[in-house]
Amino acid sequence: MNILVKGDIGPMLEIENVSHRYGANKALERVSLRLARGGFHALLGPNGAGKSTLIALITGLLRSQNGEIRVAGHSLSRRPRDVRRHLGVVFQQPTLDLDLSVRQNLLYHASLHGLGRRQARECCERELARQHLEPRANDKVRQLNGGHRRRLEIARALLHEPELLILDEASVGLDTASRQALNEHVRTLCRERGMSVLWTTHLLDEIEPQDPVVVLCAGRVIADSQAQALCTHTGTHTLHEAFGLLTTKPSDTVTEGQS
Amino acid sequence: MSASAYLHCFLGVSGREWRRFVQQRTRFFSALVRPLLWLVVFAAGFRAVLGISIMAPYGTYIVYEVYITPGLCCMILLFNGMQGSLSMVYDREMGSMKVLLMSPLSRPFLLMSKVLAISLVSLVQVYAFLAIAWWYGIRPPLFGLVTALPALLLVAVMLSTLGLVLANAIRQLENFAGVMNFVIFPLFFLSSALYPLWKMQEAGPWLYWLCSYNPFTHGVELVRFALYERLAIPPLLWCLGLTALFGLIAVLTFDLQRGAGARSPAPVHTV
């Protein structure tokens, strides 16, 4: 993840020395990472690693206790509203209004971003078409299955055309086929729209060998490299084995340079 | 962000509140039944016991039903303001608060939009109640129904911001029962909604003191005078001041960690 795109643009996401505590419990300890612009990036970690805390800090839903977070060059502490304008987020817990229709949910989100009626409708129809949700546009969200609800949340997160899309364990609760479809769908979005995606998960089958991966364990970054390189470094054959080895013996930090 | 962006945002927040109101018809009917029971049953019983002498803003002797109508209008606003706070707790627990907080617009604006949206919904219920009361025989001056509108809106905003302060303070949905017992009932009973303040003075100085400093009393009096086409300056100033104070506290105490639905403090394994 340390590879920067050539040119005058900096990284999409920069996190420097971020620590966070819940009372006496340490959730994150001096976490630093950089996400290049464009492409699919994975944030891996077992349950309780601190992934959701990190996402809550990036999105400004948790107040940062120390360290610095920048999104598209905007400092979260100094320009939080600029950061939010560049972010699209799909949260781990469903956040749709079940009693509103698919379209109404999107229009509500558009209004929260200050989009005018006509622009909101255009963006809404564009995303409905992209997510193949047009036939369900007038259905209540309550009537959708889990996979379609997730797609709607992605449509909503993309409505204001953010530069960075964050999906926090978005595939949790979906069956295998839906999980796979969702993962492929997000990868297609990355390719076609050139956008940056941060995908957090604890399910390793969602990661491909060429994906840049950050592994978080017990609140610390224990690896920051390409998935394939993690295997090479740990002398393992699969990402499952590499992940198992790293998270049970997380004393060494694997970085891009070591791989 | 332009002014139109703020307007679109407010319309969106307000539209969601209206849809919720239309979908929850039982909430509308219970909001109406409650004051109507007070008007038709409680006031009918009390009119014989409690004589109301000539007092401002009424120009003549009035029946008890006429006296408690402004208080019952405010009762609707009080319950709705608190129910608004319930919806904030619900939003927080259901995670939809996160959607609101991801807006690039300022958070104080987002919170105040929610308050104003809840207040506007409350006004519809008040006028529905006044329409039924009119049919029942409670007939303030017709123009009074117009002059009461800004007063009702101010009181609605005051009580909704108070609700927001409470929503920031309570952690769980179940605690709303406590709000009923410790906030709604004392505010309502220790006010001039059911009895004039001079009656309270007869009952005891402490009761009178509590009633005269109760924000709800000032709200009721503002509405009472406005309903009879008169402007009561001290209650107006009280309501304006208290609305600003509650609004400020609500914005300052809005806890991001709880607003986000995050668990705090939490053991690391549940993060």
UniProtKB/TrEMBL annotation, chain A:
Q: Name the SMART domains on file.
A: AAA
Q: Where is the ABC transporter domain?
A: 13-243
**Which is a Pfam family this sequence falls into?**
ABC_tran
User: Which SUPFAM superfamilies does this UniProt record tie to the protein?
Assistant: P-loop containing nucleoside triphosphate hydrolases
The highest taxon in the source lineage is Bacteria
Q: Which InterPro entries match?
A: AAA+_ATPase (IPR003593), ABC_transporter-like_ATP-bd (IPR003439), ABC_transporter_ATP-binding (IPR050763), ABC_transprt_ATP-bd_su_PQQ (IPR022467), P-loop_NTPase (IPR027417)
* Keywords of this entry: ATP-binding, Nodulation, Nucleotide-binding, Transport
PROSITE patterns, alphabetically?
Answer: ABC_TRANSPORTER_2
Which GO terms of the molecular function aspect are on file?
ATP binding
Q: Which family does it belong to?
A: Belongs to the ABC transporter superfamily.
What NCBIfam families does the record point to? PQQ_ABC_ATP
Q: What is this protein called?
A: ABC transporter ATP-binding protein
TrEMBL record, chain B:
Provide the alphabetized UniProt keywords: Cell membrane, Membrane, Transmembrane, Transmembrane helix, Transport
Its localization reads: Cell inner membrane; Membrane
Membrane topology classification: Multi-pass membrane protein
Pfam families recorded: ABC2_membrane (PF01061)
Membrane spanning residue stretches: 36-56, 68-90, 111-136, 142-167, 179-198, 235-254
Q: Can the keyword Transport be found in this entry's annotation?
A: yes
Where is this protein primarily located?
Answer: membrane
Q: Which residues form the ABC transmembrane type-2 domain?
A: 26-257
Into which family does the record put it?
Belongs to the ABC-2 integral membrane protein family.
Q: Which NCBIfam families match?
A: phenyl_ABC_PedC (TIGR03861)
The name under which this protein is listed is Transport permease protein
Taxonomic source organism? Litchfieldella qijiaojingensis
